[in-house]
Amino acid sequence: MGDVTREFYLKSTTKSKYPIPIGKIEKYGKQYHWKPKIEYEDKRTPEKIETLKYYLEYFNGGYESIYALYEKENVVKLRNVPKKIIFRFKTDEKFLYGTGFEFQEDDIFKAFETLSNNQKEELELVIKIDEFKQISKVLLRNSVNEYVLDVPIKKVGKTDLDIQITPLIETD
User: Fold this and answer.
1) How far is CA 123 from the centre of its chain?
2) For the residues 49-56, what does the mean pLDDT come to?
3) How many CA atoms lie within 13 A of 114 on its CB side?
4) Secondary structure in 3-state letters for the chain
5) Which residues of 112-148 are buried (b: 16+ CB within 10 A; e: fewer)?
6) Domain that residue 45 falls in
7) In this structure, is residue 167 part of a structural domain?
8) For the chain, what is the domain count?
9) 145 in a domain, yes or no?
10) Is the pLDDT of residue 74 over 70?
11) Residue 171 within a domain
12) Are the C-beta atoms of residues 122 and 76 closer than 8 Å to each other?
């Protein structure tokens, strides 16, 4: 998150990267009220996960970056169906974790269509992290049901968070 300015962030939140394929405009253009979410599922030693960043690519060619630095709360909003998610988070430990994955087109569209009874229903796209710090499950849920998505179990990358911050010192 180091080199990202607020101006860059605001300019890059929703731009189109690729054109929509012919015949898929209606399908790829459909939007739902949803948000991404990371949940830690180790019941023995519950840790607090602090999400730092989500990078979302949509099937319609658009993309969005959600930085905790600029958006203090991850909110449900009208978004297209995601094609790819890359995320970064930290826990109570002194490490930074992150990875990404792509969805299978038929599976993710079926999930959104199945769980969205109406266009205003709020959904959560939940990435479950287990005690081994790997993705154990990815699901889409509404207030009543959930749909487990076909995403393979994947190990999450880890780096040290040993960053020392030194105060600014004025020199003459």
Assistant:
1) 13
2) 89
3) 15
4) CCCCCHHHHHHHCCEECCCCCCCCHHHHHCEEEEEEEEEECCCCCCCCCEEEEEEEEECCCEEEEEECCCCCCCCCEEEECEEEEEEEEECCCCEEEEEEEECCHHHHHHHHHHHCCCCCCEEEEEEEECCCCEEEEEEEECCCCEEECCCCCEECEEEECCCCCCCCCCCC
5) beebbeeeeeebbbbbbbeeebebbbbbbbbeeeebe
6) 6-24+31-160
7) no
8) 1
9) yes
10) yes
11) no
12) yes
State the pLDDT at residue 162. 59
Q: Could you tell me if residue 18 is inside a domain?
A: yes
- 74 alpha-carbon distance from chain centroid: 10
Which residues are paired to 129 by β-bridges?
Answer: 40, 135
Q: How far is CA 165 from CA 92, 161, 168, in A?
A: 19, 12, 9
Full-prediction pTM beyond 0.85? no
Residue 104 to residue 154: CA distance in whole angstroms: 15
Where does residue 86 rank: exposed (0-12), middle (13-18), buried (19+ CB within 10 A)? middle
pLDDT tens track for 126-158 = 999 888 888 889 999 999 999 999 987 777 888
